[in-house]
Design goal:
single chain; 559 residues; GMP Synthetase, Chain A, domain 3; five-stranded parallel beta sheet; 16 helices; 28 strands
Amino acid sequence: MAHYMTDYAATRRTFRLEVPERFNWAFDTFDTWARDPGKLALLWVSADGQPRRFTFAELAERSRCFANVLAGLGVGPGERVLVVLPRVPAWWEILLGCLRGLAVSVPGTTLLTPKDIQYRLGVSEASVVVTDEDDTWKVDQVLAECPSVRHRIVVGRAGGGWLEYEALMARASVRLAHPRNPSADPMMIYFTSGTAGPPKMVLHTHASYPIGHVITGRYWLDNTPDDLHWSISDTGWAQAAWTCFFAPWNMGAAIFIWDARSKKFEPGEALEMLERHPVTTFLAPATAFRMFAQEPLRRRRFRTLRHCISGGEALNAEVIAAWREGTGHHIHEGYGQTETVLLAATFPAIPWKPGSMGRASPGHEIAIVDDEGQERPRDTEGDLAVRVVPERPIGMFREYWRSPEETARCHRGDWYVTGDRATMDTDGYLWFVGRADDVINSASYRIGPFEIESALIEHPAVAEAAVVGKPDALRGEIVKAFVVLAPGREPSAALTAELQEHVKTVTAPYKYPREVEFVTDLPKTISGKVRRTALRQIERERARAGGGAAGLVDPGPRP
């Protein structure tokens, strides 16, 4: 089958996306596929392997019901709805319903702690929170501190003031008129990882993600109306909106979901699912592909698979080669952010350069810029940036909501600065160098060090702490903590384990430091700020030398 992009230069030259003045993706795009009553939209497989099929028409009807549920509860346009759900069909119904009803959905991962939920409810001033039975206790624990919350909806059995999702849906009308909303209106909020402070709210409009992800679906996922697309992504991360919602459904593809939330990720089981179901396009994070590469791939038969994709972090050339040798398929990497849609990729239409991020996506001009916003010469390091003047790409976020200073800080002259350092070669290929900030990318989880450092300092044994990413062959990076102990405390394996468990209780468990190194002091600037860059450099040099850390390591569970 031919790909959408066969000539890179021609595609970039002729590419255009139109943004209507008024636009609602659920009505104007999703419902066009719902005109065929039998067209498959979602193939959902439960943890015990039981499949359920949902057509576009069924999800259209269910989402209209949820929009009417919100209206019946008095939730008006622009009000925020925090959605913390695992991979259950209700997640797709609810997000579509929020779109139709003009509520602003705020997806969050089930890994959020009560403290995380309190923060998100507080700063977003969400009036509704939706979760399942397993997580209602987190909301109840902090509800008294969240005065904006008027309604709590549970997917499952209700109790203690919670409204039962299915009961509400059963009473709701299926009739709903097109709201004719402006395309520039707020549509969805995702939270950033948080580096030097609390997470920021990334605000997308009814145009940015919905229309912008035509680029993602057409040129990276390479989806068609005949495809069944599987993206291994948790519902709480922006990649789910990218590759489990807007991008494939823009192209009329069906989405495959395996609800394996109660299971530790096992590469053999995932490959078995890929064999068993007619998946045609497949996206997995780099960590998963590294684990797949250790499996006997040649024994597998992926009869329907035609196109493979990875994103979130760079993938080793050896892993790509192993996957291609074992399956016959290349892995096409992609780069983007919560704030954007697909910015660059190793598209099928361009030669592959191992280690490269590929070239800029259609509709985007990308450059490497200096501190003044001036373009750097080719093959020299600088800040990776996207041109936003004179024309802002459609898929760009509108702003960091309620953070005008942060919004201004990421713009430099005519450019939006991504926060990543890179080079660009003479052919226009991008080469990732590292984060300009301190975000840790571990197994495709983006983790800010600030929260972990704060948690560590709360422990009475800790005087100071600094957290960085340490290179790791499997996860890309692991979270490493450098700890200065309080007077009278001594390093030990027991104390390492105690600190790790403490962090797990204060933050989301996946953020805990897998390695702790006890030090007598931390490198600092003249003003007293910890120099995380110096600590990262130490770890990079240790990795290149093949040496281990002086600290006590917890390998932790595999993703």
